[in-house]
Amino acid sequence: MTKLYVQAITFGSAVFSQLQKKFENFSANDSGATAVEYSLIVGLIAVAIITAVSLLGTNISNLFNHAACVVRSGTWTAATNTCTP
């Protein structure tokens, strides 16, 4: 009967040792951290692009409207951003 207990304890410590090794390997693996870092960088770039487009959007729209007005030989009024033919 004592031999059975010794085998059970040995088997239990072997399982614990395997679990400990798997946990150490899992905690040493940092490939997921790299993916998170890249996704944060992409997110920040997206925020910068959205901010730039929203700040410049109206000015660029007025610029193209002004160019279209000049092509049609109209008169562009900058104060109201309107074109009169």
UniProtKB/TrEMBL annotation:
Keywords: Membrane, Transmembrane, Transmembrane helix
Pfam families from the UniProt entry: Flp_Fap
Classification via InterPro entries: Flp_Fap
Residue ranges of the TM segments: 33-56
Organism encoding this protein: freshwater metagenome
Record's protein name: Unannotated protein
